[in-house]
Amino acid sequence: MRNEQPETLPEPFAHDDVSYPPGLVRAFLSEYTHPGDLVFDPFAGFGTTLSVAEEMGRRASGIEYDPQRCAYIRSRLRHPEALLQGDARLLSTYALPRIDFTLTSPPYMHRDDPEDPLAAYQEPGRGYDAYLSGLQEIYRHIGLLMNETAVAVIEVSNLKKPGGVTPLAWDIAQAISQILPFQGEVVVHWEPTYGYGYDHSYCLLFTRP
Q1: Residues 6+ apart with CB under 8 A from 119
Q2: Is residue 193 part of a domain?
Q3: Longest C-alpha distance within the chain, in Å?
């Protein structure tokens, strides 16, 4: 799949543009949703999932931790109230609608990263295992919101740096499969590529418990 973004992100986000392209969202929404369905993104990032959902006649709902990103996403949406500025780990405390489909790319973590990805890298982390446990709890609550035929897709890569490889995609698959039934993966090959871990990614598919 072409790894192309139709819009250039404004400062101060331009250096962070490693989000998946709209084409990926369109492909999954065409396969798994219908007009009027509710599409949810617990890590809204730059709003790609939500903006494409609106473009395709779906309803959008999401959460974003970072207030600057939240303001940017809301500026892109026809229904900015669909996005909450908050912490996905507190998902159970928010009044959220039932979900027909969810697609996200969670904030990535190497095994030895000191920051907490689930707090937008703005706070010290409690380690890799705590990060995976946090994702488990988020998806435990998402499972309670999923309609009977809903599908959850998590787009993620394994990571490599001089200290070694973090099998992030496989670790997330194992962690979330303890909460939601794992239905396999779609491997996406990206062109152009950012290098190892970004030349391809795994779209992990889960269904309601």
Answers
A1: 65, 87
A2: no
A3: 46
Cα–Cα distance measured from residue 27 to residue 41, given in angstroms and rounded to the nearest whole number? 16
Give tens-digit pLDDT for 50-97.
999 999 999 999 999 999 999 999 999 999 999 999 999 999 999 999
pLDDT tens per residue across span 148-170: 999 999 999 999 888 889 999 99
Chain mean pLDDT for the chain:
92
Q: How many domains does the chain have?
A: 1
Residue 1 located in a structural domain: no
What is the domain-level CATH number for residue 66? 3.40.50.150
Does 51 map to a domain?
A: yes
Residue range of the domain that includes 173? 20-186
53, part of any domain:
yes
CA proximity to 39, closest of 25, 22, 59, 55: 59
Count the alpha carbons within 13 Å of 133 in the hemisphere toward its beta carbon. 6
pLDDT at position 195 over 90: no
The model's pTM: 0.93
